Amino acid sequence: MAVEGWGSQGGDSGFVPSVQDFDKKLAESDAYLQILIDQIKLFDEKIQSCKDDEQRKKIENLKDTTCSMVESIKHCIVLLQIAKDQTNEEKHADGFISTINPVDSIYQPSALELVVIPNMPTQASPVSESVQVCKGEPRPSSLAVGPVVSNLGSHQSPTPISTGSGQSAPSSSLTTPSHVNLSPNTVPDFSYSSSEDEFYDADEFYQSTTSPKRGMELPSSCSSESATALTRSSTGASLKRPDTTESLNSSMSNGTNEAEQFDTHDDRDDDGEGESVEEHKSVIMHLLSQVRLGMDLTKVVLPTFILERRSLLEMYADFFAHPDLFVSIGEHKDPKDRMTQVVKWYLSAFHAGRKGSVAKKPYNPILGEVFHCHWALPGLENDVNPEPISEGPVPGASKNNVTFVAEQVSHHPPISAFYAECYNKRIQFNAHIWTKSKFLGMSIGVHNIGQGCVSCLDYDEHYILTFPNGYGRSILTVPWVELGGECTINCSKTGYNATITFHTKPFYGGKKHRVTAEIYSPNDKKPYCSIEGEWNGIMYTKYANGENTVFIDTKKMPTVKKKVRKLEDQEEYESRRLWKDVTYNLKTKDIDAATEAKHHLEEKQRAEARERKEKETKWETRLFHEDGECWVYDEPLLKREPSLRY
Questions:
Q1: What pLDDT sits at residue 162?
Q2: Which Pfam families match (predicted)?
Q3: Measured torsion, CA atoms of residues 488, 492, 494, 497, in degrees rounded to the nearest 10
Q4: How far is CA 283 from CA 23, 279, 288, 425, 478, in A?
Q5: Which of 124, 129, 121, 133 is nearest to 74 (CA)?
Q6: Fewer C-beta within 10 Å: the chain N or C terminus?
Q7: Can you give the residue ranges of every domain in the chain?
């Protein structure tokens, strides 16, 4: 390993190594480790092609030995990382100030802090679907971890939005994850994830009689109201679309103004304080001891303190934090300008979800969970006589609003579907995302399978787009987010298309958060517009005529706060009401109570899943249906208003 030669170098030459030198060698070691992992994959090919049983057995033994070596190297890297952090703490023992600022988003490390430990020197390839190299014994249950970062991404080729009505399963198949032995007595009490196989955190590890953290009565706030969310009859009679119009109209008829009717509070905006990753280093070490490189993270227990206080469904709403850019797409007369505006909205959609300093994980949505919200367009916030819309994602909202709804439509695999529209601007958006997480040594990769479609009804244009991968870097100290991968936007009717590349930070040097984009006219091989910059900063454009200008400046673009109905007006299965007890206890830093609340909620879901299995009834989605390989909103604007058709 590269780290081994580093110590002698300082002794022979008199050179005093710095923290940066240590980080550099550690990063090299991790990169070599990834190369070794790739080489191990070749064992499988050798084993399959080998016809001699004795020779095959030798190769299998060699593979097992190499896998053990890989695990030892991985843990060595982790221990070296911990040792460095502990050394830094000793230097500041008289008044150590934590370098962790545990709020969600992007943190820019100082020179003395840990640099990113990438998973490969080039950082150019997507998360591999077949990185699993080491097999373990089956564990008692499967504990899931949702995406740790903004869950955005796909490297698959865009599939046109299906217009058929046939029912079919998603085309992508699940990779069988590795397993390891896991003793219930050694599992940390801070278990926070939803399981892809068991739906929720494994019940085997809920030890109320042996754990002091669990030996308490459930708080009154965690009573049956939150635990009965998503309750449905086995006949499916209550499985259909909720009637949200009644609660909205009742508020209006009672003289409730919009400020009272909707809550614009963002759970992330109230404070930037929280628990430090450094304070839970032993828990993280235990977490890492349970994983294998390339393992599907739906099988790993996540500590509670890294949770963001909102659901993944709510995070997807951040795509529309600039609703004015979204609705302006259809206002352009020239198809070239419309394509350029789609790219502008797309590139502006990623920075809004990351406001703090540390990447944190949202709640894994529960099957059937729904999130509704809307945005008032800038300049129309104080519309005196708003014309309410009777249907759509948020009945009762103004026709000038951008309205949004998301639903967790599947748990095997975990798929979220979401839809947005603006009635008066005659534009809609439909998307679905299936998240897959992988452990990459010192990083976590999130590969999302899915696509979105922007539909301009005035022009009968549909822009099919994909999303970048997400990476959680520096997971032992100050987790931060970066995006990576090539994405596309295509309009089949006009022929305009764009390629967007999110660049991961190079192994040595280079900048974080770089993005480049090229927009092409039909049948042209040379772009008419090139864009470069940072997706969470300033992006510049260069046109074919030589004109250069600022394309987007996210630092100067104020986001529009979404509006969500108050908790008392929400249905039991809506995200904020569903998770309200967990959110409250996380906010007050009562981790044990948050764990209790989540466990109580998920136990209810397990019971309902068992009941459906016993009665052989199938789960019915609320607001979306499967159409080919896509999940489509049941009542899109185009369907509700035939007069809007082109």
A1: 44
A2: Oxysterol_BP (PF01237)
A3: 10
A4: 23, 9, 9, 50, 15
A5: 133
A6: C
A7: 4-91, 184-230+288-352+360-617
* pLDDT in the model for residue 86: 59
* Average pLDDT in the chain: 71
Tokens 């998307």 correspond to: 431
Is 537 in contact with 528 (CB distance < 8 Å)? no
Low-confidence ranges of the chain (pLDDT < 70): 1-16, 82, 84-306, 353-359, 441-442, 475-477, 643-646
Q: Identify which of 475, 65, 63, 492 has the alpha carbon closest to the alpha carbon of residue 302.
A: 475
The CB density around residue 391, as the number of other CB atoms within 10 Å, is 14
DSSP 13-72: H-----HHHHHHHHHHHHHHHHHHHHHHHHHHHHHHH---HHHHHHHHHHHHHHHHHHHH
Q: Tell me, what's the pLDDT at 85?
A: 62
Query: Domain 184-230+288-352+360-617: which topology?
Result: Porin (2.40.160)
For 443-489, the pLDDT digits (tens) are: 778 888 899 999 999 999 999 999 898 887 776 667 778 899 999 99
Tokens of residue 637, six digits:
């604007």
CA atoms within 13 A of residue 234's CA, in its CB half-sphere: 11
Q: Which two tokens stand for residue 540?
A: 């510049």
Contact present, 435 and 288 (Cβ < 8 Å): no
Encoded tokens for 523:
């049948």
Q: How far apart are the first and last CA of the chain?
A: 63
- Cβ atoms < 10 Å from Cβ of 636: 18
CB-count burial class (<10 Å; 0-12, 13-18, 19+) for 384: exposed
> If DSSP states are collapsed to H, E and C, what string results for 180-215?
CCCCHHHCCCCCCCCCCCCCCCCHHHCCCCCCCCCC
| Secondary structure of 576-603 as H, E, C letters | HHHCHHHHHHHHCCCHHHHHHHHHHHHH
